[in-house]
Amino acid sequence: MELMDDRHGNASTIMLSQLPTEQWHQSIGDNTIADAILDRLMHNAHRLKLKGESMRKTRSSLTDGEHLG
After folding, report:
1. How far is 6 from 4, CA to CA, in rounded Å?
2. What is the pLDDT of residues 4-54, one digit of tens each?
């Protein structure tokens, strides 16, 4: 929260997550803090949702049966 507070309106921030934004409140736990963080992140955000296989999986020499998950 302190990081987002310091940077809000002063500097660009890049946030990457494998967790969909719909699940961020649950993951953060405290709804008040989650609202404050997400408000600062999403207010002027450019969101890019990536699709497709993981680059680790596609470039790996492992076969499909050897991958976890």
Report:
1. 5
2. 778 877 888 888 888 887 888 888 888 888 888 888 788 778 888 878 887
Query: Which residue range(s) make up the domain with 16?
Result: 2-66
* pTM score: 0.51
Q: What is the token pair recorded at 62?
A: 């492992």
Number of domains in the chain: 1
As given in the structure block, the two tokens for residue 10 are 């002063």
| Cβ proximity of 67 and 57 under 8 Å | yes
The owner of tokens 């809000």 is: 8
**Two tokens at 60?**
């790996």
| Total residues belonging to the chain | 69
